[in-house]
Amino acid sequence: MPTSTDWLYRYPPLYSGILIKRYQRFLADIQLDSGEIITAHCPNTGPMTGVCTPGSPVQVSHSSNPKRKLAYTWEMIQVQDTKPTWVGINTALPNRIIKLALEQRLFPELGDYQQIRSEVPYGQGNKSRVDFLLAGNPQSIYLEVKNTTWAIKNTVLFPDTVTERGQKHLRELSEIVHQGDRAVMLYLVNRGDCTEFAPGDTADPLYGQLLRTALTQGVEILSCQFQVTPGE
User: Fold this and answer.
1) What is the DSSP letter of 78?
2) Which H or E element spans position 94?
3) Residues 6 or more apart from 14 whose CB is under 8 A from it?
4) How far apart are CA 155 and CA 106, in angstroms?
5) Distance set, CA 75 to CA 58, 93, 139 (Å)
6) How confident is the model at residue 6 (pLDDT cuts 50, 70, 90)?
7) Taking Cα atoms as reference points, which of 50, 84, 76 lies closest to residue 156?
């Protein structure tokens, strides 16, 4: 088990509850252990396949900011796929977590880099933004991050729905390689119970085709698993 010094990110104090339902994409009704029923913000735009089952244990954070419409944020859910496992569903966190990992140079596959920049314009007409640009010598590294939570048995899959944005990212990363720099697609596996990664072909066949093509063209794929607990 990791020690207290191994954690990349520590959650604020969390509150336990049971998921009643998720609706309108950004809302979730949850019954806290105290019996109170709250409506929490659901920071996830996707269908959350397999990770939004009513009746499942969840954890939420609380904000004292009076300007917020919803004081609670849904952070994680416990699934029962192969074993009880906490899964992080807050898609605002992966980039923060990966930036911490990049700062600590935790990915030896990336080699040496001198500077980490976030949300840098790139692509055709600079109309896209890459999650991270790692300034290196002699090549820069364009790094995209995808939060990955859908699992079938021991395999985690991405995406869990058609993603035109994701398809565009793969095409743009392939072009980066053609221009002479490195391009990396990093899948943050936000659960600790899987041993394999694969494209979600049944959800988006075109994405699967583009991912395999990008790999043959030199785009690097990193599937990085993170253990999630109600603390860290």
Assistant:
1) E
2) helix 94-103
3) 59, 60, 61, 75, 76, 230, 231
4) 23
5) 8, 9, 36
6) confident
7) 50
Q: What is the DSSP letter of 64?
A: -
Cα–Cα distance measured from residue 123 to residue 214, given in angstroms and rounded to the nearest whole number: 15
Extended beta strands in the chain, E state: 14-23, 27-32, 37-41, 57-62, 72-79, 85-88, 115-122, 128-135, 141-148, 150-152, 155-158, 182-189, 196-199, 220-225
Three-state SS for 98?
A: helix
Coil vs helix vs strand at 102: helix
Nearest Cα to 40, choosing from 72, 13, 88, 77?
72
Task: Return d(Cα 21, Cα 128) in angstroms, integer.
Answer: 34
**Which tokens hold the place of 15?**
């509150």
> Which residues partner with 87 through β-bridges?
77
Q: State how far the alpha carbon of 196 is from the alpha carbons of 72, 77, 82, 126, 180, in Å.
A: 33, 21, 13, 34, 30
Note the pLDDT tens digit of each residue in 11-58.
999 999 999 999 999 999 999 999 999 999 999 999 999 999 999 999
43-96 tens-digit pLDDT:
999 999 999 999 999 999 999 999 999 999 999 999 987 789 999 999 999 999
Positive or negative, the CA dihedral 75, 79, 84, 87 is: negative
